[in-house]
Amino acid sequence: MRASRMTAMNPTAPVIALNGGKPAKTTPYGTGSRFNSEEEEAAVAAIRSQKLWYKQGGTRVLATEKTICELWNTKHAILCSSGCAAVHTALVMCGVGPGDEVIVNPVSDWGSLMGILALGATPVFCDIDADTYSLDPQCVERAITARTRAIELVHLSGYPAHVQQIVAMAHARGIKVIEDCAQSPLASVGGRVLGTFADVGAFSTNDSKHVSCGEGGFVITSDDIMASIARLFIDKAYSRDAQRGRTDVAFLGFNYRLSELSAAVLDVQLRKLPKQLKQRRVYAERLLAGLAGVAGYTALQTSPETQGGYWTVLGHLDLSQFRVSRDDIVKALHAEGIPVWAALAPARTLYGISVVQSGIFSPYQRGGRASSLPDKAWRPEDFPVAERIVDSVLPLHCSPFFSARDADETASGVRKVLQHYHA
Predict the structure, then answer these.
(1) Any idea what DSSP says for residue 255?
(2) Predicted TM-score (pTM) of this structure
């Protein structure tokens, strides 16, 4: 009834596809091959070398670490087996252990939290701000205690957090900072790339990220001691310089090593990253221009001195301005041919997942609540901005293969659907 009244009031308004109108997306989104002859040749060369482990004569891992150092203008890069492994390694590099507190974004992948719990430390969730979807500096300042060992700052979806302000605040208090850059490789603020502001930068090269070797990750740092700890930690903490039979292990490490084969592919991918980011930015900027002024929708903006990474193009709805739910809007966008995720991360919030709520880490539910966690579970009302954003966020897909036409048709479809459902 309401829709028919709206059409009568504005007969020129385009009919949404869900109601029988023509879909906004008239052609398929642009596609392309992520892996080409260069990656194939690098992988074949690694196999033909008969050296698939850098500890036994392989050269690809070390060469790829050198490439990372050049791209990020940093002193040390250490490859590892995943982004989760990278965050875990970064926490160890910062000296995090039992009794320590680590301030972390409540809206992120589970991998941002796993290492904190594995080390027996206490996660301290802080609310986010609506300008970055990452940690609110004022909330961080209130959360710092004598037990705060580190702050884990997540740059979500290629959008920089308030990194300069938070790093300055932390270092003034002797607190380490980790930049989780899994979705933001080579994004920058003031010409300086993310991951180099803090003590450690952690990255993912999983197949869903900007660059891929299937599964992988790395950490970067300019600190010699922290780099040495990282190299030990990802290699079972073995003292490799000792004679066989006399190898010692000084602390608990893990086998987080990356293979030569994966490193060979990753090196090629990394060299393509600057061009890929330019393509993503061109698409994102055109899409954002097309979305400007849409009532009830706020696009996440980057400042003039910022270069975003645009894993997705982020924005959120003011649901009070619409007659339907976000799920209804997402359904209508899909009918227009526009893919969209109604979420920032796989889990709605990190404080809401079962293992954190129960505090029991065993799959057999053995033992009581972990002593590293607070006696009481976290309450959603303590994170009002995070709660609002996770229920209203509307991430739009972004790819280096998408065209100007893709951007224009996406913007047209979003505008059409939001105007149709606007109250």
Answers:
(1) B
(2) 0.94
